[in-house]
Structures are given as C-alpha cells and as structure tokens.
C-alpha cells in the first residue's frame, strides 16, 4: 500500500473530556470537518454550552493531498493554546479535523509553560478518546460513452473494483467513477485506450 494513498481522520464527534490543572478546567473535544465554514458554528456552540468559559481555543487541519490549517489562541498568550493543540493533530497524523479546548479559569495563573502543557494534554486526551479511521484517497473521473460501449465499461468497472458515484442514462451514458489514487493512472489509460469512450478527471 502506498503511503500517499491513505489519510487518517475521525468519523464522528469525540466525547468531551475534562482535564484539570490548578483549579482551571480544560474541556477537550474533536470534530470531523470537511470545510473551514464548519468551524465558526461549532465554536459558537461551545461558547453557549460553556457560557462561563474564558477561552475557546482550537486548531484545525483540512485536506488529503495538501494541508491547510489554522490555530487560534482566543485571547490566551501568543502560541500558548492553538499551536499546542495543532501539534497534537500533527502528532496523531490527522486531517479533516477540528480540535477544541475550552478553558474555565480557576483563579490561579498557570504561566505560558503551564498553559502550553495544559492545552496540549487536553487535546491529546480528546484525540486518544476519538475513533480514528483510515480512509483511501480517491480520484474522481467522468466517463461519457454510448450504449454499445456499456458492456466494456461495466466489465472494466467490475474487474478493477471501481466505485460508481453517479450515473445518468439518456441519449448517451454519463458516469462518475471513483478510483483509488494509486490506481488512477492505470484505470485512466484503460478507458482512454477503449474506442468511443471519453474519460476526464474531475478533481
């Protein structure tokens, strides 16, 4: 199996965990996300849930081929919260994920070193309690062909274990197929070599 063929993420929201340090409470949680737009509503939801919280700090990472990420300290000293959380996302090798740590101040200042340690630990416990799954990176293709080619197309799909994402049968046939990234070039060539079949990459 090729390494670039797979990525790791979570499929469902993790249980909320509680880590305490010198009376401050740190609530950690992990969320599966597909876009940056999903982040803000989840943070607002946590602010409502923990309405006495002083900070809702977080980090996220998105992307299967190339990664984009953000870390947010939400008023804590610079790089004392968001980056330690992000460090745990990297340590677990995850993507398409948001990890939050909500802090309720307990009256004792922890100092920057104490904060880094507390946020990192809360994020780590949250990820330890998450269901981590391995997913295959897929390449999506569009197929166009006439009805006489249907047998050839279906035979190739069956032989190669290709997933059909969508299909439309009208005057001609249109099909969206999903192929494991490491096999994409091979499958493209097979269809490209067949007469009267047009294949194009969608992603």
UniProtKB/TrEMBL annotation:
InterPro entries: Impact, Impact_N, Impact_N_sf, Ribosomal_Su5_D2-typ_SF. One of its GO terms (biological process) is regulation of translational initiation. One of its GO terms (cellular component) is cytoplasm. Residues 22-127 form the Impact N-terminal domain. Belongs to the IMPACT family. This is YigZ family protein.
């Amino acid at each position: 199996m090729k390494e670039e063929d797979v990525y790791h993420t979570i499929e469902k929201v993790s249980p909320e965990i509680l880590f305490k340090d010198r009376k401050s409470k740190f609530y950690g949680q992990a969320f599966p996300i597909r876009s940056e737009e999903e982040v803000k509503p989840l943070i607002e939801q946590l602010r409502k849930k923990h309405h006495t919280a002083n900070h809702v700090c977080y980090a996220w990472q998105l992307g299967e081929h190339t990664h984009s990420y953000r870390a947010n300290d939400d008023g804590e000293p610079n790089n004392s919260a968001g980056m330690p959380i992000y460090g745990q996302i990297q340590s677990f090798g995850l993507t398409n994920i948001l990890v939050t740590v909500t802090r309720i101040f307990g009256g004792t200042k922890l100092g920057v070193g104490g904060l880094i340690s507390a946020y990192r630990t809360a994020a780590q416990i949250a990820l330890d309690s998450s269901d981590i799954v391995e997913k295959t990176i897929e390449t999506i293709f569009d197929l166009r062909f006439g009805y006489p080619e249907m047998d050839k197309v279906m035979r190739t799909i069956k032989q190669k274990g290709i997933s059909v994402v969508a299909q439309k049968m009208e005057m001609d046939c249109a099909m969206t197929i999903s192929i494991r990234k490491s096999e994409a070039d091979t499958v493209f060539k097979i269809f490209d070599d067949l007469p009267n079949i047009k294949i194009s990459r969608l992603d």
